[in-house]
Amino acid sequence: MGQISLPKKGMTREDVFNSLTSFKSDDVKWHEGQLFGLVYEAGPEVEELVKEASALFLIENGLSPMAFPSLVKMETDVVSIVISLSGGDDETVGSFTSGGTESIFMALKAARDWARHTYPRIKEPEMVVPVTAHPAWNKAAHYLGVKINMTAVKDDLRADVAAMKNAITKNTIILGGTAVTYPHGMVDPIEEIAALAEKKNLWLHVDACLGGLMLPFLKRLGNEIPPYDFSVPGVTSMSADIHKYAYTPKGVSTVMYRNRDFRKFQIFAYADWSGGVYATPCLAGARPGGNMAAAWAVLHYLGEEGFMALAQKARAATEKLIKGINAMPQLYVLGDPDATVFAFGSDEINIYELSARMAERGWHIEAQQLPPSLHMTVSPVHLSIADKFLDDLRRITPEVPPADSQDLSEQAAMYAMLGTMPDRSMAREFAVEYINNLYRVS
Asked: For the domain bounded by 54-298, which CATH number is listed?
């Protein structure tokens, strides 16, 4: 594709929207429940609500609380609601962010600066997290100059606290746990990690980006959910995404702290600029007001009863899918997932080829590695299509070649190749080159 230039004459409104609509022709049909992740769907009523609410504040800018007190009101309300769902109290505080990556980034930044104040002897800070932690931890560590030490998980795919303890050094400042893990849908043993953090006087961040707006409602519905939030002594900070199981547009997340003394290390302020004092709570300066309005709208529209009904549907769909997959002799679900996220694999067939063949029928299932598996993030909409998905899976699975087969589609071959590279630096270089080529214009 050659270089694209700004057109000399503008397109008509009709042509603009015809073009935009055509761009979507090859996208996965997520409205039909054919996508397990990336988009979280609560139905057309909620979708229309967030579109209208977002449009009402689309142009407003969250950078200036003086100019737009409406945004401060909505942001404060949203964070307060999420705190209440996360075991917080009157001392707990938080901030609105653009997504889970920024939330984790800000928590690590706060922990790093807290450590500079608390442990000035530490010049090369380190953190300890399980290997199932989201790569946002690695990204934050890379940008913030914190060494990351990753530890193995147990056979149940949850954090091995003994391994985490052994990985702590004199430079460790922060521990991390997840509720729920993206690869396998597990809640790490947060109580045990928190006890370790308290004993060592370390910061503990719980990444509840995926589970933060699902686990509280599953617990209310009677599901057994391990303790993971601020009700656990020793938890210093948490992150919870609203644009996942609160069904709002991307990107809306929250980062929360046990009290203001911890959050102050997150805030950036510069007093010597000729344009005036510049201060922001998070990484972004200008922030879209539309996302704040959408988050406020959906939380108040659904309420506790609405969220519980959606959580019940998502969990019912998850249980049906897990039961159906485990009943297939060539497939199995990894571990015993806690909520509405899981992965399945096989010792008999080529799981990546299965993903490719399901894609031919319209099902988009993300492939994973270490070990090879397919990822399933389940939304309420999937309850209505679970039987169809399982029927297709039953028909296709017996046709898939053995696990050691190289009979793969192009996409599946890429996952298989990356997953089996013994030198992980080769996989990293491949990924960098892939992204570098993907977003070029000529």
From this structure: 3.40.640.10
